[in-house]
Amino acid sequence: MLREAAGPDAVRRLLTFLARRLAAEVALVAPPEEHVTAVPADAERLLAAVVDDIARVGGGELDTVAVHVMGRHLAVLPVGPAPNRPVLVVARREPLTAEGRDLLADAAGPLSLCWRAASAERRAECFRATDGRTREAVLHLLMVGHLSGARRIAAVLRPELPDLARVYIVEGDWKSREEVTQRCRDAFAGAAWVVPCPVYSRHVIVIAPADDPDAVPPPPNDVARELTETFPDNRVGVGLPIALRDIPIGYSQAFHALAVARHRPERYARFSARGHLDELLGDGGRVWAARTLAPLLAYRPARAQDPDAYELMATLMSWLDFGNQSAGQLKIHRNTLSSRLRRIGTELGCDLTRLPVQAELHLALRMLSERPGQEPGETLGLDALLAVPEVRRWADIQLSPLLADERRTLLTTVATWLEHDTQTVPVANALGISAHGLRKRLARAEELLGRALLAGPSARYDLQLAFRIRAAHGTV
């Protein structure tokens, strides 16, 4: 009996042992918030005949009950101290013998301990699941710019969110993600906010303090090296220090760095900045963004249960970053996502399937989030905003890793990929290569650019705009 009690699934193993020794059907009926364990499984059918007796024994009104129903001798016995204790129900064709009663008396102690251990584990698992969902909710609030709500929740769960942060993305085997998550917490001595990614099952997201950009304890490279050495399948992307309100930017940085880390023998990389287009467009860009998104900002749902303007904006941003996988981040059904996207396309009067449209909307959303409530003024078109020399230099910098003569094939590949809205088959046909060959070229371009292309958040929007800017100046 002790061997059964020491093994996994100890309650069921003990019940199986008793059923075999007593030639009986047995069931353990736990308090109302728990569940029934029966051996064999259909033994649960016998419980209906003794429901009241089970309640009275479990509550401590009676010590034991013996009845004869359905051609069976049923014994209802307590397991552990009252009240709200589990109850053991034993059904046999013959009454229990003295030896059988002794066996049940001996089993009551181990069975009670095993049930308590299993019950505690279930409650702990429920707590872990609730804690995980709440931490994921904090990440979502940060990604959509709700800092005050995120801070309030984080202050309760701990650790508090830092004013200046650095985002890490750890990629590994999904089977070991729970272990990797705990190792990330340990690596930062509990000071970092660590969340399994709700979109990518192989990713763990870390938001760590970065109070001193030049000397963060522990140094980013040391942490990345430790995580890759501890888990040989891990790769780590590290972002730059950013304000907490810019967590979406930090996440994109770490995601791009991760794309580079996949091609490095050390399996970790830090993001290399090349400037941000939205920073160059200034107030004129913010006015353009507000005007571009005005129909969506002014949207009012016809029914109270329909998504409002804020929800549609969050949906659009998530979809632009993660595609159809955004349903997982937003916790909505794929059909709901499709319905929202149709509504967004209708309100904005645009075709969301076209990459140039996506690139403009992505830029507008980034510009709008920088200074909400910007007063409208004279609106320049995007082409006029992109015509200034600083923006031209930005475009050259984005594409500079592909501009060398020996890399023209990769430049042409990326340009063709963008021209065909990143659709694999048309691009491969246009280039005269296989889909596999196209993916290999794009992976090589990722490595050179230091940016993710094949998964979102992708650099495809910045690259599309960079090609557009260069084309406007007659440069391929």
UniProtKB/TrEMBL annotation:
Name the InterPro entries for this protein.
CdaR-like_regulators, PucR_C-HTH_dom, PucR_C-HTH_sf
Q: What residues does the PucR C-terminal helix-turn-helix domain cover?
A: 312-366, 410-469
Which Pfam family, just one, is annotated for this protein? Answer: HTH_30
Q: What domain of life?
A: Bacteria
Protein name per its UniProtKB record: PucR C-terminal helix-turn-helix domain-containing protein
- The organism named in the record is Actinophytocola xanthii
